[in-house]
Amino acid sequence: MPRPPRDLEAGLFHVYVHSVWASDHLFRDDSDRMTFLRELALATGRVNWTCLCYCLMTTHHHLILDVERGALAKGMHSLSFRYASYFNQRHAMKGHVHGRRYGARRIVDEADLQGAYKYVVRNPEKAGICAPEAWQWSSYPAALGLVEPPTFVDPGFVLRSFDDRLEHARAALRAFVAKP
């Protein structure tokens, strides 16, 4: 049975990619994570994405993106290809790095955005690693104002869904993410 066609329209998407087919780890160390973030920054500029959120785990990653028509597939191809080239060269591997195509789910409204955001940033906690705000491989600490946000991440869209006043929005976001 053929795969369903990709959603090519503009909008917000929760994007996720799982582990490599020949290894347990998509990111083996901080060098892999830094390279991926550099490639993500390049992809956002290349295809004019807005990255609202990211979270890199050992075996997978999540992104929340605001994309123009046709940009999701183009950007994900570029990001995945460039990271796979790096990964294969660095770890003496060949072929596909990802076991399957990336997954992407359209975010349909503000409540869906907030729920997807919470799901993404709570990954370190669910994995038993640390609290969401302590995970350095997520954009969540920057959304809370704990660290400087990367230049390619704009948490404003998510924050404004909670309140127009920045400090109130950050407090509301923190409380929402902390609530089970």
Strand-helix topology:
Layout (H helix, E strand, L loop, with lengths): L10 E8 L11 H18 L2 E7 L3 E8 L3 H20 L12 E4 L3 H12 L1 H4 L13 H4 L12 H5 L5 H13 L2
Antiparallel strand pairs: 1-3, 1-4, 2-3
Helix pairs in contact: 1-2
What does this structure look like?
It is built from seven helices and four strands. It has 180 residues and is α+β, with helices and mostly antiparallel strands. It has a four-stranded antiparallel β-sheet with strand order 2-3-1-4, sandwiched between helices. Strand 2 (50-56) and strand 3 form a beta hairpin. It starts with 10 loop residues before the first strand and ends with a helix.
Alpha-beta content class: alpha+beta
Q: Give the class-level CATH name.
A: Alpha Beta
- Could you estimate the helical fraction of the residues in percent? 40-55%
Q: Largest sheet, order of strands side by side? A: 2-3-1-4
Q: Descriptors for this entry?
A:
180 residues, alpha+beta, Alpha-Beta Plaits, four-stranded antiparallel sheet, 7 helices, globular
Q: What's the short version?
A:
The chain is 42% helix and 15% strand. The protein is α+β, with helices and mostly antiparallel strands and 180 residues long.
